[in-house]
Amino acid sequence: MSAAPLKIMIAAGEVSGDMYGGALIRALRERFPGRELDVRGMGGDALRAEGAQLLYHTDALAAMGVIEVVAKIRFYKRVLADMVALAAEWRPDLLITLDYYSFNIALAERVKALGIRTAHYISPKVWVWRRGRVKRIARAFDLLLCIFPFEPALYAPTGLRAVYVGHPLVEQAAATRAEPPPELPWGGGRRIAILPGSRAGEIRALLPTFLEAARRVQTELGGDCSFILPAPTPKMRALAESILAKHPAPDRLTVVDGRARHVMAQADCAMIASGTATLEACLMDCPALLAYRVSLPTELLARLITLKAAFRYAGLVNIVANRLVMPELLQRDCNPANAARITLDYLRDTPARRDLLAAYAEVRDRLGPPGATARAAAALAELL
């Protein structure tokens, strides 16, 4: 008699969490050979490719600021209610939540109250701000999978099992580097990657600025350059192309589906929205600037929150390095003139480029070796 399917409920609200979740489900299948994994919940294309049945897709779930989230609060309440109802009716063996803290902590609390085991992958950055969240996290989860080596100690007084597994991007970047480089539609000359984010709000806010910066770079180089914009999902590609149709763009710019790491591996430098992609740039050794722009109320709230923060940086590379190594163009500093100036600096053999690449090597050492997903799957298998 074959074993019953292993029922895994999963909750990923953003593209990065979906990417980690897809890899995690593959690794769990290796831990349970011959046993079917029935995966349901919310996520994106990576989880769907692994056979997950999705109630909600990341394209609908992402929002980029406090004001933007508040505007969708009724939608998020409905998503939460539907996910809790799924857990109550389906009775999964385990709920795995990935990043997306504010929503996932509320979901985990409700699901754990149903007597269902809970685990969270990608520990919330309590070491940056709001350390008071530690106790709430400890109550909501049976297992916490941490990506930085200093994180488990923060949870030691609570009794929560917090396991350091390493950063999953390290192995994904290593796998990308090991692959034969694909043929990408570069148009010749110096290569610049444009990554305006994975959320609609980010793309609307940043892509016009990046396009104008790219045109200035093109003028400065006499046209001896080309650009690739890797779109994270078909929906975000359609949005980017609609913006391109309305804003002047450089002559040689191509939009491709996915392959962001391949694009960065081949690029001479990049303009990137703050987020996971900045860390990917470090792992692919691609000099990059970080940019971000939110509404004024969101900015003021962020400034208030970070008054007591342990770190004063927006970018993951800078947070891991604990100093400013990747330029951060935030709010009013996020303009075409600044983006073009830094990009041109990185296209030449300047001290700024050499210093950034040296700092990248330091950050990669701190992130540890590949194998995070396999270690995370092993800890989850033990819990199961």
CATH-level-2 architecture of the largest domain: 3-Layer(aba) Sandwich
CATH superfamily of the largest domain: Glycogen Phosphorylase B
**Shape verdict:** globular
> In order across it, which strands form the biggest sheet?
3-2-1-4-5-6-7
Q: How far from one another are the termini?
A: 20 Å
**What structural class do you assign from the helix and strand content?**
alpha/beta
Could you name the CATH topology of the largest domain?
A: Rossmann fold
* CATH C-level label of the largest domain: Alpha Beta
Low-confidence stretches: 307-311
Number of strands: 13
Largest sheet: 7 strands, parallel
For the record, the count of structural domains works out to 2
Query: How large is the radius of gyration?
Result: 21 Å
Strand content: 15-25%
Residue share in helix: 40-55%
Output mean pLDDT: 90
Number of helices: 18
